[in-house]
Task: inverse folding
DNA sequence: CTGAAAGCGCTAACAG
DNA sequence: CTGTTAGCGCTTTCAG
């Protein structure tokens, strides 16, 4: 049997197909009795409006794109995307939008995203991730694609970010308070992505303020890079007495390297992460870290994007971060 | 400026709009010179076909749904979804399909999924997850929604699964070979989801074959449940000498509990996982586990779904699993 | 307050 | 090989 259309409903209810449309879209001037008859027919026939037809006629698209930027999609081996995306989808559905997901790589091929937008596969996007270059961003803005930035905070954009500087300051404070005097931060050192920059600068500044040594070691957010960074540090002449992973994965890699180096944590060296994913509670020792409320941020981002689509300009937002002290530092 | 349509291209190229359509859809009978002119116009005007219009006319939808079943979406704190979904999206895009993501909870509210399907928001779905009930599945099949099962293997369905029985047998074999005689498997004990059943039964059978004791302890796939299960085991009278986590998270939770219990791993007790996510390499000690090729499975599932959409009946598939021996067992 | 007409952008069917 | 005609399912005019 062919799918039921609006005209079928109209016929069943004994009204014109227009009236059905009016009922569906909550137009004011419909007799209550007529409306009830139409509603009954809709239920009876199990009618569902055809999205594509509606979108075509209304020249508007009710799909939002959640775009993850800059990383090898298969290599984000932590729950970051899970958390961001599930909150994103739940929030979007609550507002009547559906969600599609896209990836843009570090190589920066934006063509597929552009094409999908121009084909009207989605109406706007949240750009998620720490490694979107400003050149890429400018390109995207040139398409007049409604955009909200997630985990970036750049001028002249709508963005949802976290107070990485404050989080990092709290962490440095904690290490200093537990007697550390020589800290090392594992972080992508050449990465211009704004959260890296923010963490690096806040780290160096906090170290300076406390009058302790602070140095940067390269990492690429992976467990393995945290492990390697730790080894490199101890292969050098003046190993630090505290190592800060730029995220929980690198912190965990460093933890494991400390074990292999015969170092006791936190006795010999303090180690911390950044994210507070569940696994940070189950490492040995459990990871001291900074909690990032990814889900809340994602929900904010969706609401902001919907506002942008409606022609508004929502305020950018910076959520506060809190330190979670466990065993490792 | 209004978006450029097919008629604009036609005008620019000096042909009828139909000819443009023919060129776009690769219809055979178009003069090469005409085609080139049309192609040039498309490029010049930066034309992109309107998806919704195309879908409406062709009565076919080029969106696939990736449905995750049965878990609290925000609580899958491992990279399972990352891995499945990124491979899924990459494969789908390679075939010209876009992807939308849905969740269905354990409470079993299928209405939103059904509504989205009836509104033609997607053409078919892969059902991902271990806790879809067969009642839910039958309901979904009743909608004549083209469906492929992922991580299930039920009769009369197209499914992509893994050889969990063989993987579990290899793991038990390994524990027995390292001298263990009393094994415990942490797994949702009452879960009727087929991969749980498969793992449980294969475990019990392998233990029987080797003539060793095998028992089941309840867990819910989370780190915390692995931790609790381990504690419960050692609170009892006859603790085992090997503990098998039903997944890597529960294995990791058990590892941490062993540490807190003052147990040396693997000297006092062997511990293993199941998945082989990256973090299994960085626990202390590193987790012996069974590698599941989630990405490959996801790619198979997409191809199978596209075949189903085309009216075919692809064969179900069971991928082989391999043991990864590390330090913990 | 309800019905008839028009058309969103596209493609299938036919005629030229 | 190319152009014309029709209509997918819906909503926005505008008369009745």
Result:
């Amino acid at each position: 049997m062919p799918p039921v259309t609006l005209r079928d409903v109209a016929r069943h209810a004994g009204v014109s197909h227009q009236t059905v449309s009016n009922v569906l879209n909550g137009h004011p001037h419909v007799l209550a009795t007529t409306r009830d008859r139409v509603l009954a027919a809709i239920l009876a026939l199990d009618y569902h409006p055809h999205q594509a037809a509606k979108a075509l006629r209304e020249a508007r698209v009710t799909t939002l794109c959640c775009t993850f930027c800059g990383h090898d999609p298969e290599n984000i081996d932590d729950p970051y995307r899970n958390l961001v995306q599930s909150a994103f989808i739940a929030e979007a559905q609550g507002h009547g939008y559906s969600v599609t997901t896209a990836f843009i790589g570090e190589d920066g091929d934006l063509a597929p995203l552009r094409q999908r937008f121009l084909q009207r596969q989605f109406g706007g996007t949240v750009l998620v991730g720490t490694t979107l270059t400003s050149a890429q961003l400018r390109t995207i803005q040139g398409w007049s694609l409604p955009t909200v930035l997630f985990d970036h905070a750049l001028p002249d954009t709508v963005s949802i970010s976290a107070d990485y500087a404050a989080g990092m300051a709290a962490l440095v404070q904690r290490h200093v308070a537990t007697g550390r005097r020589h800290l090392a931060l594992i972080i992508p050192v050449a990465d211009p992505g704004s959260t890296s920059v923010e963490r690096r600068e806040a780290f160096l500044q906090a170290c300076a303020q406390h009058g302790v040594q602070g140095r940067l070691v390269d990492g690429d957010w992976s467990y393995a890079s945290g492990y390697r960074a730790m080894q490199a540090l101890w292969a050098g002449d003046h190993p630090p007495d505290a190592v800060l992973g730029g995220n929980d994965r690198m912190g965990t890699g460093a933890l494991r390297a400390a074990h292999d180096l015969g170092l006791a944590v936190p006795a010999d060296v303090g180690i911390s992460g950044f994210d507070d994913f569940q696994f940070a509670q189950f490492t040995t020792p459990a990871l001291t870290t900074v909690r990032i409320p990814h889900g809340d941020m994602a929900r904010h981002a969706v609401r902001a994007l919907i506002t942008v689509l409606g022609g508004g300009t929502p305020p950018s937002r910076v959520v506060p971060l809190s330190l979670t002290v466990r065993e490792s530092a």
